[in-house]
Here is the input.
Amino acid sequence: MRTDKSLLVVDDDENNRDILSRRLEKEGYTVATASNGNEALQLLRFEQFDLVLLDVMMPGMDGYEVLLRIKADSNSLDTPVIMISAVKENNCVIKCLELGASDYLLKPYNMSVVKSRIWRCLGTWRGINNERNWQYSMRNSTVLIVEDDELNRDLLQRRVKQNGFQASCVNNGREALEILENGQFVLVLLDLMMPGIDGIEVLKRMKSDKKYPQIPVIMVSALDDPASIAKCMANGATDYITKPFNATLLRTRIESVLKEKQLQDDGNIHRRQPPEESSPEDEQIRSQSKDITGKE
Here is the structure.
């Protein structure tokens, strides 16, 4: 299926660059590639892209500097940028978001997650222009937190409230399904591994019940293996966050998911279908990015 969206993939590793661009072209995007920061900035001077996927660690001009220059140029400052990196440190994530990145993807990445984040960025970046009005409309909205670990549950609750939302907490899947019957929630933060009814079963029941299939669900788990992520996305999860989570990245994901939901509810963008199971090319992307040592 063709789209009218054009993407720029910036990565100094030829294998990563070519495989990712081919996979995105298969999804219907028009894709250009750049092997370094200077080449990316030159392309941005001559062509307008709807989104940039930008490697962080590159020789010469790194991704930070490229991002800084993109956001300093009036012709490209509104272009959403998703950073891609193998670096998990909080300071790297925070630095990218503070410089203006829309999101941060860790290598080796799951293609279902990549597609979901791209789709969301493209759908919401220009869809909600008044940030203050959006925050006002969301301030009394309630997020349901489903987490069996008390410490993690309390921490998520504090973070959700700090970001201006109400929070309701339960500690297992059975309680989650019961409270969903009577509560009004805009989002569910759902632990994957729980005794009894686990997160996958809760997710399946939510998505099969006509009362609340459109409530977005962000899975929160210590599991970061591709199979677990792919299974959650294939069963209708909107996003997937690994523990220990970064507070800044958590806020970014919650806000982007809720903006997407508001646009869908208003009829400004179409609802997504759950992603397909991983293709052989997806597996190749993961294996290629895993094979790179000492850098992304």
